[in-house]
Amino acid sequence: MLSRMFSRTSRLRSLTRVSQISVRYKSDGISPRAIARRSSLPNIPNPDTPNKDIDPKNKLEKPEYETGGEVTMPGWKKSFGEALVSVFHIDMDQIRASSISGSKYYYMCKDQALQFKDDQLSESAVFWYNTLGLPRTFAQWYQITVLHVWMLFVRMRSMPFKVGKNYQQKLVDKLFKDIELRLSEEMNVLSGRIRDMYLKDFHSQMIGMVCAFDEGFASESDAYLAYAVWRNIFNGDKNVDIVKLEAVVRYVRMQLYVLDKISDRAFGFGDFEFVAPSETVDPLTAEEEHQLKLATKNKYEPMDRILPPSQRSKLSIDE
């Protein structure tokens, strides 16, 4: 994946495989998780921090719809679909948003802090709940998920307007469809009126978080971004460990750097993954950026000639 760009030990060797490129950002080579573990300050709960969870349970039972499974399509349906795309000149960059942004990218965002009863926490969830000491609540999962959704928003805004807007909309649609399902299936909120009330609250919270993160990202100082993280991830805890706050800011900057280096074509095809909290990134040199562009072209330019119409794209390979 393009999110794994130029590892410290084998940068040039990995250039030949675009799907496994690793990027490192920050010359000190210290991961966000390592930074967060440096502090010896005790985790003191703040009684003034509001409890924004809607359910007293800390861990959720894993529902049936989380089991996943591959979906196969008969050959004749594939052929028929390719013919429709070719005859009617369907814009596949718009169609692809559902499967890439509304499926892959959303599940990447929600899985960062997802946790179920009796299931082992993922590496990223360990960072958020164990290393940073955040509460294992539904509301906290939502806040972490929206943080990752916002980071993808930043990249989608730099795509062609209509395509980027569609990718953002599919991501938001999937987010709230999933929340509505979780409210009814996991939280046992059976009243449609009450679910709608919660959905409106979550939507308002998302708008506020996106605006706050945008302001922090656009500012010249990381202090504004840290303030947004403190309010929306650490819930304005007055006893927050500053070292842990720094770790999250570095984590965000690391992801945004990787997203900045990926082309529209690669990002539009889902060739991105979040860098793990245990990893670090260094800025790419001019030569490494050139090699990255060459590797991207070698992977995607043949698509315009040999692949079926459904796999073609007008998105830029260079930007």
How many helices? The count is 13
Q: What ranges have pLDDT less than 50 throughout 5 or more consecutive residues?
A: 1-27, 54-58, 82-89
Cα separation of the termini: 17 Å
Say how many strands there are. Answer: 0
Tell me the quaternary state.
Answer: single chain
Overall morphology: globular
InterPro entries: Ubiq_cyt_c_chap, Ubiqinol_cyt_c_chaperone_CPB3
Organism: Eeniella nana (Yeast)
GO biological process, one term: mitochondrial respiratory chain complex III assembly
Pfam family, one: Ubiq_cyt_C_chap
In short:
With 319 residues, the chain is mainly α. It has helices at residues 11-14, 32-38, 75-88, 92-111, 123-131, 138-156, 161-185, 192-218, 222-232, 242-261, 264-268, 286-300, 303-306.
Task: Describe the protein.
- The chain is mainly alpha-helical and 319 residues long.
- It contains 13 helices and no strands.
- 56% of the residues lie in helices and 0% in strands.
- The longest helix is centred in the middle third of the chain and has 27 residues, at 192-218.
- The radius of gyration is 21 Å and the shape is globular.
- The model is unreliable at 1-27, 54-58 and 82-89 (pLDDT under 50).
Please supply descriptive tags for the structure shown above.
319 residues; disordered N terminus; 56% helix; globular
Topology:
Blueprint: H1 11-14, H2 32-38, H3 75-88, H4 92-111, H5 123-131, H6 138-156, H7 161-185, H8 192-218, H9 222-232, H10 242-261, H11 264-268, H12 286-300, H13 303-306
